[in-house]
């Protein structure tokens, strides 16, 4: 199968995030984000690294865009660094930041690649976190102001916008478990951050409509198919809880205009939501979107009872389950994530391509006909550079093939899937894992910054009909 098996106009791309690839964290007026601060906290990052240099994409973006063209991509999903555009999280625009993204977008357009810009992929300006971060409603107002600046500066060349990437991660990994920046432990209060993030989406969407009426805009959620380990009432309730926190807490307000009462009750936040979530809030959050982005990696199988009672895999962040660590599922700590016999990636995430269809059906049931895009899908493995400079990664290649096949199955079932973005274009700073995990279809030597398309990247190029379809070894690297 190749791209001709998909409907005309189906979008094929790759995705990245600003803090993971750009580097240049003090260049041209950029100020610290919460990830700059968090990565310097002892023990926060697996290898003690930071994104200070990352892939040096800030200086090498033209090389990376040339790689995209060689792959045969239609589109590139990237994120804007908020502290590069509005360093303090308030006030006027930093023209140098806008200019960088204009250079990037111009390079994409010159190669016939459509830019898809994500406004927020987790790098909140540290000054706003010092004022309370996403636990404060005012941060949503600041996001709306930032969105206006970004769209005013780039709206003439960017026509596809994503407001937020994975607000579940921002709220619950950032403010509940503390596995991600800013590393706080607010327990069930982290659900308040979730509301403020979704409010930011709604208010940001309004600014996109105001400043670029013809633009296409949506939000990206990380969704999971959740299965109970057995048919027991307790295990079924465990599945209800995790489905609620992972999926319904975000899908329902965005697509149905209200929070699920059972999930808010599980969190113990019913009184706060009743007092602080207005009808106007819900109207903003549920304003019509042009598409829903879905990030898909794995499936959850869950059971009731303390984690020690079950054969644990890993939690949703990819960390080995630790009983002493605060849970990323506040109010549902007594739920265990259990293993099946499915193969796993290096992250410990089980491979269930059929669950990709499950989550698309979940979204389509709530908003029939709404265009859906897989905005991230990929896998980490321990890549090895061969003596000839090539990177043979058959497991990642198989993972991509399986999930592209699942996209085909979703379309066969009549689901409104319109595109697929592989995660990720290049190896990068993998958040709390630092540089110990590689998701790229292009290998990066972090000492030399040399880029080398992996076997998986060449497979993707063959699928798309891109110039890199030639056998590995004929063009081993870039840079």
- Walk across the major sheet and give the strand order: 1-2-3-4-5-7-10-11
Helix and strand string, N-terminal first?
EHHHEHHEHHEHHEEHHHHEEEHEHEEEH
> What is the 3D form?
globular
The major β-sheet equals:
8 strands, parallel, barrel
CATH level-four homologous superfamily name: Glycosidases
| Averaged pLDDT | 95
Structural class: alpha/beta
Question: Using only CA atoms, what is the Rg?
Answer: 21 Å
Number of helices: 16
Annotated CATH topology: TIM Barrel
Helix content: 25-40%
Q: Give the uncertain stretches in residue-range form.
A: 308-323
Count all strands and give the number: 13
Distance between the termini: 32 Å
How many domains would you count in the coordinates? 1
Which percent band covers the strand fraction?
5-15%
- Identify the CATH class: Alpha Beta
CATH architect. name:
Alpha-Beta Barrel
Strand and helix layout:
Blueprint: E1 11-15, H1 18-21, H2 34-38, H3 57-71, E2 75-79, H4 82-85, H5 95-110, E3 114-120, H6 126-130, H7 138-154, E4 160-165, H8 167-175, H9 190-211, E5 216-222, E6 225-228, H10 233-256, H11 261-267, H12 270-276, H13 279-285, E7 291-295, E8 299-304, E9 335-337, H14 354-366, E10 372-376, H15 394-412, E11 417-423, E12 442-444, E13 451-453, H16 455-464
Parallel strand pairs: 1-2, 1-11, 2-3, 3-4, 4-5, 5-7, 6-8, 7-10, 10-11
Antiparallel strand pairs: 8-9, 12-13
Helix pairs in contact: 3-5, 7-9, 8-9, 9-13, 10-11, 14-15, 15-16
Give structural notes.
The chain has a single domain, classed as Glycosidases (TIM Barrel, Alpha-Beta Barrel). The strands form three sheets. It has an eight-stranded parallel beta barrel with strand order 1-2-3-4-5-7-10-11, surrounded by six helices. The two termini are 32 Å apart. A hairpin with a 6-residue loop joins strand 12 and strand 13. About 3% of the residues have low confidence. By secondary structure, it is an alpha/beta fold. It has 16 helices and 13 strands. Keywords: Carbohydrate metabolism, Cellulose degradation, Glycosidase, Hydrolase, Polysaccharide degradation. One of its GO terms (molecular function) is beta-galactosidase activity. Its EC number is 3.2.1.21.
């Amino acid at each position: 199968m190749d791209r001709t098996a998909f409907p005309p106009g189906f979008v094929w791309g790759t995705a990245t995030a600003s803090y993971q690839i750009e580097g240049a964290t003090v260049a041209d007026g950029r100020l610290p984000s919460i990830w700059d601060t968090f990565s310097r906290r002892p023990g926060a990052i697996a290898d003690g690294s930071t994104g200070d240099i990352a892939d040096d994409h800030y200086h090498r973006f033209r090389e990376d865009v040339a790689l995209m063209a060689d792959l045969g991509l239609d589109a590139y999903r990237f994120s804007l660094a908020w502290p590069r555009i509005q360093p303090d999280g308030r006030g006027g625009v930093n023209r140098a930041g806008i200019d960088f993204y204009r250079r990037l977008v111009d390079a994409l357009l010159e190669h016939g690649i459509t830019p898809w810009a994500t406004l927020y992929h987790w790098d909140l300006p540290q000054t706003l976190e010092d004022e309370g971060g996403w636990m404060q409603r005012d941060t949503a107002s600041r996001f709306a102001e930032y969105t206006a600046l970004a769209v005013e500066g780039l709206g003439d060349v960017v026509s596809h916008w994503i407001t937020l990437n994975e607000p579940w991660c921002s709220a619950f990994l950032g403010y509940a478990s503390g596995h991600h920046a800013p590393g706080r432990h607010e327990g069930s209060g982290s659900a308040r951050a979730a509301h403020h993030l979704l409010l930011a989406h709604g208010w940001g969407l309004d600014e996109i409509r105001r400043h670029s009426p013809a633009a296409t805009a949506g939000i990206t959620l990380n969704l999971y198919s959740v299965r109970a380990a057995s048919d027991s009432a307790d295990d079924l309730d465990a599945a209800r809880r995790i489905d609620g926190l992972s999926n319904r807490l975000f899908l329902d307000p965005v697509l149905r205009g209200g929070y699920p009462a059972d999930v808010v009750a599980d969190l113990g936040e019913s009184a706060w939501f009743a007092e602080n979530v207005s009808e106007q809030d819900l109207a903003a959050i549920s304003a019509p979107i042009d598409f829903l982005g879905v990030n898909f990696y794995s499936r959850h199988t869950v059971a009731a009872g303390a984690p020690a009672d079950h054969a644990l895999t890993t939690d949703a962040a990819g960390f080995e389950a630790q009983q002493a660590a605060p849970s990323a599922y506040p109010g549902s700590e007594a739920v265990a994530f259990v293993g099946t016999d499915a193969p796993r990636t290096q992250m410990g995430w089980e491979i269930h391509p059929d669950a990709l269809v499950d989550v698309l059906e979940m979204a389509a049931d709530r908003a029939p006909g709404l265009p859906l895009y897989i905005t991230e899908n990929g896998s980490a493995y321990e890549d090895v550079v061969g003596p000839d400079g090539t990177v043979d990664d058959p497991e990642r290649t198989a993972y991509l093939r399986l999930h592209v096949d699942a996209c085909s199955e979703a379309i066969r079932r009549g689901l409104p899937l319109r595109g697929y973005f592989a995660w990720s274009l290049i190896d990068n700073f993998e958040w709390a894992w630092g540089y110990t995990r590689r998701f790229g279809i292009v290998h990066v030597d972090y000492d030399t910054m040399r880029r080398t398309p992996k076997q998986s990247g060449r497979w993707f190029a063959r699928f798309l009909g891109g110039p890199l379809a030639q056998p590995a070894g004929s063009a081993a690297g870039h840079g």
